[in-house]
Write a structure and sequence with these properties.
Largest sheet: none
Strand content: under 5%
Radius of gyration: 23 Å
Low-confidence stretches: none
Structural class: mainly alpha
Helix content: over 70%
Distance between the termini: 79 Å
Number of helices: 3
Order of helices and strands: HHH
Number of strands: 0
Length: about 90
């Protein structure tokens, strides 16, 4: 009967360990995703600036534009281009 208590305690410990790991790893996953999306946004901005150089058009590369392009992807680049055209 004592081995049943040991098994239940071990399962309880594993469940607690799993919950703690999930709580600690979620922010890390979110930061990695944000960093990867920001790098993709930066690449999209640089590509749009390279293509836009033929039309005398450029987008500023700063943290806000990189994050917008990173979060939204191609629609974010289109949004930034439209906004830049409206401001001019």
């Amino acid at each position: 009967m004592e081995w049943v208590n040991v098994i239940i305690a071990a399962l309880f410990f594993l469940a607690i360990l799993y919950i703690i790991a999930q709580v600690l790893l979620k922010p890390v996953k979110l930061l990695w995703k944000l960093a990867i999306n920001s790098l993709i946004g930066l690449a999209l901005l640089l590509i749009s600036n390279y293509i836009g150089a033929y039309f005398q058009f450029d987008l500023p590369v700063n943290i806000i534009t990189v994050l917008v392009a990173g979060f939204l992807g191609l629609p974010g680049i289109i949004l930034l281009i439209c906004f830049q055209l409206l401001v001019r």
